[in-house]
Amino acid sequence: MRLPSSIFVSVSLFTAETTAALYLSSTYRSAGDQIWQGLTLLFTLVPSMLVQLTLTFIHRDLSRDRPLILLLHILQLGPIVRCLEAFCIYGSVGRVEEPYVSITRKKQMPRGGQSEEVERQVGQAEGKLVTHRAAFARTSVIQAFLGSAPQLTLQLYICVLQQGVSIGRGTLMVISLLSIVYGALRCNILAIKIKYEEYEVDIRPTAYLCIFLWRSFEIATRVVVLVLFSSVLQLWVLPVVLLNFLIFFLYPWVLFWQSHSPFPENIEKTLTRVGTTIVLCLLTLLYAGINMFCWSAVQVKLSDPDLISKSQNWYRMAVYYMLRFVENASLILLWFVYKTDFYKFISAPLLVLYLLVAYGVAIFFMLVFYQFCHPCRKLFSSNMTQGLRDCSSFVCLLCISPSPQNMPIEKATLESPSPTQHKQPARERAQDTTSESNHDLPNDTTYELLNDTIYDIPNQTGNTVGDEINGDIIHSVTCDAQSITAD
């Protein structure tokens, strides 16, 4: 049985960030900055309360007689108590005989095209540790994107305004960045375990390293871009943030409405319809918070019984990163245009270049992870690189290629008839007329028109159709043309 080290890391980051935020808020109070003090406490206490509610909900403490545990959660000490409980369970393994065990069946990764199913006995203590790990994996994501990410953005904005970094603020910013990256890493691991729950997944250190570098560059770049943009265009940063948030908050609900699926009732038996709606809203709130700063590896699907999409959609990921890159580039260019002498102590062109390159480096490590380090890459139904290439080609085709149906008409309109065309033999003119008249006929070349990007496609298609016409028809048309000429 593995040591519950992930639980210890989660609780350590939670405790360190809460302590640093409380200390920094006291310094803001001493300096008379009540606005900064209030926002710092807001981004500390709200996610802390959500963490307590999540732990209580997962362990179902409301339906059990545990008043002391509930009191400690009210006092915001729930994660510490749960961590101690998990280590006590780990220490008691092997000392007491298990009253019963359960048998789990997991498939191994395919080797040579075949995968074997392995049975394993899971004791009661190990089952409890699995529940603790799952609970803290979810709370780490909540703490990261509903608390640490807004907190880091706020403190960096204050540093830009005051042109200085104090010890307390710098400490909180470093802890918040580590908390966000760790939460994003846990989100990736959680997505892998949910999508491939039937398999025994072994995640190697190189995969952890790629995820860490990918998320570090992506999140740091996003936070810096938002802070720089808000420092010069304060009135426009709120619409940008709200638009991003509302799009990702409403997107799962729109998909759920389009699927015409029944309202999910199997989340928790004790919850009413109103309680279920609140839980789903909190889930989509977390989903929007993640996508505000980085790509969410866990895709919410309200029509699924597990509320999570288990399919890998490369096109959605490619569209997200292309749009996010365009948005980041637009925001940083707007900052470059409207910046004042306040930023004379830095080289603005180099900063713009560094941010764009950093986001490109994040995409590079993402590609390396999915192509070489993903533990379940053998189970992918399609290659990621090919999927992203096809999506990029499709987007470029939509942007630069004119409509195939309009091209023969446009070409005929633009080209004026030359005198040599009237001197063509009647036989050739009849064949050309027959060939051009078949553009309106349904044929099997429609699929080829969508894949080719050169502008001579309509002429090639017309020639192909003309060549496939029955020879008797061409002969009859030729004879008619000759008779007309003779007359």
Write the SSE topology.
Blueprint (H helix, E strand, L loop, with lengths): L4 H27 L2 H26 L7 H8 L3 H14 L9 E7 L9 E7 H39 L4 H29 L9 H28 L1 H26 L13 H21 L20 H25 L9 H26 L10 H17 L6 H8 L11 H12 L8 H6 L5 H11 L3 H16 L1
Polypeptide structure, described:
The chain is mainly α and 487 residues long. 70% of the residues lie in helices and 3% in strands. The protein has a two-stranded antiparallel sheet with strand order 1-2. Helix 7 packs parallel to helix 10 and helix 14 (426-437) crosses helix 16 (457-467).
Can I get a quick summary?
With 487 residues, the protein is mainly α.
Considering the chains and any ligands shown, give keywords for the structure.
487 residues; mainly alpha; two-stranded antiparallel ribbon; 17 helices; 2 strands; globular
Poorly predicted residue ranges = 403-487
Number of strands: 2
- The count of helical stretches stands at 17
**Strand percent estimate:** under 5%
Shape category: globular
Helix content range of the residues, please? 55-70%
Order of helix and strand elements from N to C terminus: HHHHEEHHHHHHHHHHHHH
